């Protein structure tokens, strides 16, 4: 029991580091999450040209143009909700995975529902911050 509690505490600390807006740790974490969860479809640079893009049934958006499509402002909350996918806002035509559910399910058994929700939100925030950092100027 102590080991699971200690592991959960470590993940909460890691999630807190993800949330440190603009820090190198958050950027590195977001980029890592992006490369692991998103680049296969959206491409390494976020332009929608990943190796699986040609297999998709919907066009993949150029993630470097999110701000441009929103009058120059990055819609952080909308991006977080789209990545999470559990709130009803779904990504580009539906085939996008519900990352909030996937991230949480992968951890819930080991660290419980509350700690896994905190870590999940940290991972999604790190992804959104990475997307904000790659916006075309």
Explain what this protein looks like in three dimensions.
The chain is mostly helical and 137 residues long. Helices cover 57% and strands 0% of the residues. The chain is globular, with a radius of gyration of 15 Å. The N and C termini lie far apart (50 Å).
Largest sheet: none
Q: Strand content of the residues, in percent?
A: under 5%
Radius of gyration: 15 Å
Query: Which overall shape is indicated by the principal axes computed on the Cα atoms?
Result: globular
Tell me the number of helical segments per DSSP (H or I, 4 or more residues long): 6
Average residue pLDDT: 83
What is the chain-wise order of helices and strands? HHHHHH
Distance between the termini: 50 Å
What labels would you give this structure?
globular, 0% strand, 137 residues, mainly alpha, 6 helices, single chain
Describe, in short, the structure shown:
The chain is an all-alpha fold and 137 residues long.
Task: Give the helices and strands, then pairings.
Blueprint lengths: L1 H17 L5 H14 L1 H4 L33 H9 L14 H13 L1 H21 L4
């Amino acid at each position: 029991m102590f080991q699971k509690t200690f592991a959960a505490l470590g993940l909460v600390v890691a999630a807190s580091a993800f949330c440190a807006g603009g820090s190198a740790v958050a950027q590195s974490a977001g980029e890592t999450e992006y490369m692991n969860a998103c680049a296969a479809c959206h491409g390494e640079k976020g332009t929608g040209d990943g190796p699986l893009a040609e297999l998709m049934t919907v066009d993949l958006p150029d993630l470097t143009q999110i701000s441009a499509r929103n009058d120059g402002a990055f819609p952080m909350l909308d991006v977080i909700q789209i990545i999470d996918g559990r709130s009803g806002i779904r990504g580009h035509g539906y085939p996008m995975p519900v990352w909030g559910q996937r991230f949480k399910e992968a951890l819930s058994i080991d660290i419980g529902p509350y700690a896994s929700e905190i870590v999940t939100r940290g991972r999604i925030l790190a992804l959104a911050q990475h997307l904000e950092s790659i916006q075309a100027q």
